[in-house]
Request: fold
Amino acid sequence: MPRPKSPKTLARIERNAKLFSQARFGCPACMQSRSVKIDRRGKPYISCLPCGAQLFVRKDSGVRRFLDRVQNGAPGASTTTPSRSTNPLLRRAHNG
Ligand SMILES: [Zn+2]
Reply:
């Protein structure tokens, strides 16, 4: 059974799912554009299957910087390309 989430975590999940709903970011290994996902604690991350690379942004200050890079055109980053994925709230993290 999953642990109940605190109101703070729920608020973060909702906020970041919205902020990163169309976001993409380049894999740190191959630089190909990958969709930004939200983990069960509401932290954004990317996962590149061919590389097996994962990038997690854990701190709220880092989340703001990450969002800034996503919105300002870091390599592979975008908030306008429609994502193939479904609702980010339904995505599951592989790794908390
Ligand atoms: Zn990659």
